Amino acid sequence: MSDGPLTGIRVLEFAGIGPGPHAAVLLANLGADVVRVQRPTEPLHADQQLRGRRTVVADLRDPEQLAKVKSLVERADVLIEGFRPGVMERNGLGPEECAKLNPRLVYGRITGWGQDGPFAPRAGHDLNYLGLTGILNAIGPADSPPPPPLNMVADFGGGSMFLVMGVLAALVERGRSGLGQTVDAAMVDGVSALAHFIWSFRDAGLWTDEREDNLLDGAAPFYRTYETSDGKHIAVGAIEPQFYAQLLAGLGLEADDLPFQLDKSSWAELSKTFAGIFRTKTRDEWASIFEHTDACTTPVLSFAEAPLHPHMAARGNLLDVDGTTLPAPAPRFSRTKGELAGPPPLEPSDPATLWR
């Protein structure tokens, strides 16, 4: 157990996939004591997102086993669940029932659509939730369908991160009121909140609904990726004039010979110019050219390469643990330092022995 900022906080996680386990491992890395409840039909396995837990196996249809789980609810600070609305209620573990058992309980619910609304009872995945927010339509080239941005944006950016934020905010409020509450973390809400900046640009007339037509969606030649001579890629983010000047210097270009940086009508042609130059050297040659500049131009690394980059290695944010690469706890604290949670449990715990 670490001495992280959440040391002493007890989290009861009901087994799910994606954002729920991710939220739980983030809390565990910050020192929380996490107990995971899962069905007897689910095997215990070495999924690295299940680090930092003890696991209780329980059939919630069995009154005796349900009573044991309720005894954990009575002693928990936080409950996390990611089922469709109504599932926990049917199991006798909905927010109202749990509040009777433990009025101080913070009850975190993570779903794609939220606890209410026409789509609330429907199935879905990251891409579906992202599609309803307007954000998916804004990603990718203009001449092809929007690509799936992995499942980073809705599941984790708009999902687990907002669940964690909601849980922590509710714990702070509990310090004033003495009472828990329910946190409805919907991925469609979280993604929309992440997009404040884009909505602000759109309301100001600085963003269109067309893909690859805006400052930050790949249309601007100074904010996109380019292929290099070895088939790899370089990321260019030289938005500000002083950074753009350094980009041009590294490319061997003179600003006086080029259109004004923000002249949108010239962006397509300028992108072709930049692309041709970037194809003359390898990715690592370009990385070396721009390494000690503020041109905001950096290599695009693979998963295998990322831990080996000097900056990433110096920060130690991708750790080798018994041959497995794991992200280090984040964010970092000056006093109450979190630590990487222990390995996934391969044997269940007896609920009668926990949190006594």
At the third CATH level, what is the topology name of the largest domain? Rossmann fold
Can you identify the CATH class of the largest domain? Alpha Beta
CATH architecture term of the largest domain: 3-Layer(aba) Sandwich
Poorly predicted runs of 5 or more residues: none
Number of domains: 2
Q: What's the story with the biggest beta sheet? A: 6 strands, parallel
Protein name: Alpha-methylacyl-CoA racemase
Organism: Segniliparus rugosus (strain ATCC BAA-974 / DSM 45345 / CCUG 50838 / CIP 108380 / JCM 13579 / CDC 945)
InterPro entries: CoA-transferase_III, CoA-Trfase_fam_III, CoA-Trfase_III_dom3_sf, CoA-Trfase_III_dom_1_sf
Region (Disordered): 325-356
How would you characterize the overall build of this protein?
The structure is a single chain. The chain contains twelve helices and eleven strands. It is of the alpha/beta class and 356 residues long. The protein has two domains: 10-195 and 335-353, 3-Layer(aba) Sandwich (Rossmann fold), CATH 3.40.50.10540; 223-300, formyl-coa transferase, domain 3. The strands form three sheets. It has a six-stranded parallel beta sheet, sandwiched between helices. Helix 5 (126-132) packs across helix 6. The protein is elongated and about 80 Å long. The two termini are 16 Å apart. The model has no long low-confidence stretch (mean pLDDT 96).
